[in-house]
From TrEMBL:
A GO-annotated cellular component: membrane
Transmembrane segments: 74-95, 102-119, 125-150, 162-185, 191-214, 350-374, 425-443, 449-468
Principal localisation: membrane
Lineage: superkingdom: Eukaryota
Membrane topology: Multi-pass membrane protein
Keywords noted in UniProt: Membrane, Transmembrane, Transmembrane helix, Transport
Annotated protein name in UniProt: General substrate transporter
Membership in a protein family: Belongs to the major facilitator superfamily. Sugar transporter (TC 2.A.1.1) family.
InterPro entries: MFS_dom (IPR020846), MFS_sugar_transport-like (IPR005828), MFS_Sugar_Transporters (IPR050360), MFS_trans_sf (IPR036259), Sugar/inositol_transpt (IPR003663)
Record's subcellular location: Membrane
One Pfam family, short name: Sugar_tr
Domain Major facilitator superfamily (MFS) profile, chain residue ranges per copy: 35-472
PANTHER family: PLASTIDIC GLUCOSE TRANSPORTER 4 (PTHR48022), SUGAR TRANSPORTER, PUTATIVE (AFU_ORTHOLOGUE AFUA_6G14500)-RELATED (PTHR48022:SF29)
């Protein structure tokens, strides 16, 4: 079990004293409302893609148009999206840190719009795959930037909830795609799958419009020596325009001091990044979060639900689409609920309960699928369906609600883009392998393929118990030196205190000067 302590939580204590809810703060309320389409909407695109690829496999015109792709071709068609992500990831920190969070969201959205149009216009298998690679190339620019911007703009009290809602927003896009597929799958032309393909661009268009309405990250502005702009944003949204706010003074000083320390020790290359023990520890956590979020049994239920349903006797395309829509809606409900309660529980507790529940569900899924395959028992089929619906609450408790919240907390500002990029790289690589291999495994060995997941999930639980630190109840700056030892934490606290004193001293001098001028 890992114990890690953060710096003195002075800002956190002030935040907890603020009992005014966000919806009674006009500026903060307006910011959060615009964040929904501009930032949370990034995950709508990702969810739309997964659900769409799941749904169009039930469309006869799609199957005929692409000559009934075999398990290998089908796997590659789905996995090509992740391949595009992998190709883009080396460039993501460069764009995100050099040009800002907002620019990176716009850049990724434009690429995805191009990919959606090409996918809709696909004339053959090669064009369809290339379009999906382009779609995948654009998504990490937007995901890394949007998740960072949410964490860096939000008021500290709501930050864990908003970063958790970012991941649960995936289900909004998935529900829309499932509904669109239900509405088009009986069409007897290729528009049955072209319409869902082109509609994938709609969330990206919304991001291009609304991203202009939100401010840039104060932390990014401070890192670029644009201090007055950063302070003005904090005053407007975290203090509702009160320039004398004690919270903003401390928050600004804490951010400024922490980023200054980070920049003094900033590693310029990926190779240099791994030279410190703290960063190596963070890299291992990024690897675990990337792989665990994709190899915990969710991939078969997201991409190949049709094959699982066929294994328990559900072969009617309409019924399959209804199950797909039902599971997606249920996942959205429980995923949103988990995001809203994330502040009430410790991070480690949620992760451990999550992985324990997933293990129990997969045991039930394996046993019931085996029983149905051997006996054709309807009761076994019902248990399988129940297991499918029981899976999402446990998965969403940890890997959905906490992934970006946890990433933003364990990676300090100067390497946050690199950290989320590493998690994305491992996650997309895991998805690429999973998406390609899963249909082959399900076709060749059926229910026995689930045994692999049961074994792997036990391994995940062991790793989570051993190395995942607790991060709840602290601001980002209080967590910035989580793995660097007490000296770094104390130095950060001392610098923050010094900046606060200097700021107060300047205010006193300005006040005395004003009084003398009035006299």
């Amino acid at each position: 079990m890992v114990v890690a302590e953060a710096a003195d939580p002075v800002v956190s204590r002030l935040v907890e004293k603020d009992v005014t809810p966000w919806y009674k703060k006009p500026n903060l309320r307006a910011l959060y409302l615009v964040m929904v389409p501009a930032c949370l909407g990034v995950e709508w695109t990702s969810g739309f893609d997964s659900s769409m690829m799941n749904g169009i496999q039930t469309i006869d015109t799609w199957d005929v148009y692409f000559d009934s792709p075999n398990k290998a071709k089908l796997g590659f068609m789905s996995a090509s999206y992740s391949l595009g992500c992998i190709l883009a990831l080396p460039f993501v920190p460069l764009i995100n840190d050099r040009y800002g969070r907002r620019f990176s969201i716009m850049f990724g959205s434009i690429i995805m719009i191009i990919g959606s149009i090409l996918q809709c216009a696909s004339q053959n298998l090669a064009m369809f795959v290339i379009a999906r690679i382009i779609l995948g190339f654009g998504i990490p620019f937007a995901i890394v930037a949007a998740s960072s911007l949410i964490g860096e703009l939000s008021y500290p009290k709501e930050r864990p909830i908003l970063t958790s809602l970012f991941n649960s927003s995936w289900f909004v896009g998935a529900i829309i795609a499932a509904g669109v597929n239900m509405g088009t799958f009986e069409m007897d032309t290729t528009w049955a799958w072209r319409i869902p393909s082109v509609l994938q661009a709609v969330p990206n268009m919304m991001q291009l419009i609304f991203v202009y309405m939100i401010p840039e990250s104060p932390r990014y502005l401070i890192s670029k020596d644009r201090h007055e702009e950063a302070r003005a944003i904090l005053i407007k949204y975290h203090a509702e325009g009160d320039e004398g706010s004690e919270l903003v003074s401390l928050e600004y000083a804490q951010i400024n001091a922490t980023i200054k320390m980070e920049l003094e020790n900033k590693k310029m290359t990926w190779r240099q990044y791994f030279t410190t023990a703290g960063n190596r520890r963070r890299a291992v956590l990024a690897l675990c979060l990337g792989v665990f979020t994709q190899w915990s049994g969710n991939n078969p239920l997201s991409f190949y639900l049709k094959k699982i349903l066929v294994q328990v006797g559900i072969t009617d395309p309409r019924r399959q689409n209804q199950v797909n829509l039902g599971t997606t809606c249920w996942s959205f409900v429980n995923g949103t609920f988990m995001a809203l309660i994330v502040r009430r529980f410790k991070r480690r507790s949620m992760y451990l309960l999550c992985i324990s529940g997933i293990f129990c569900v997969y045991i039930a899924l394996t046993v019931s699928s085996a029983q149905y395959a051997l006996t054709g028992s309807k009761a076994a089929g019902i248990v399988t369906m129940t297991a499918i619906f029981c899976y999402s609450p446990f998965y969403n408790m940890g890997f959905n609600a906490l992934t970006y919240t946890y990433l933003i907390e364990i990676f300090p500002y100067t390497i946050r883009s690199k950290g989320i990029t590493m998690q994305q790289w491992w996650g997309r690589a895991a998805t690429f392998i999973n998406t390609f291999v899963n249909p082959i495994g399900l076709d060749n060995i059926g229910w026995k393929y689930y045994i692999w997941y049961c074994v792997w999930i036990v391994f995940e639980g062991f790793i989570i118990f051993l190395i995942f630190p607790e991060t709840s109840g602290r601001t980002l700056e209080e967590l910035a030196f989580l793995f660097e030892g007490e000296d770094a934490k104390n130095e950060a606290a001392a610098r923050t205190e010094k900046q606060v004193i200097e700021h107060e001293h300047r205010e006193v001098i300005e006040l005395e000067t004003t009084k003398k001028a009035d006299v």
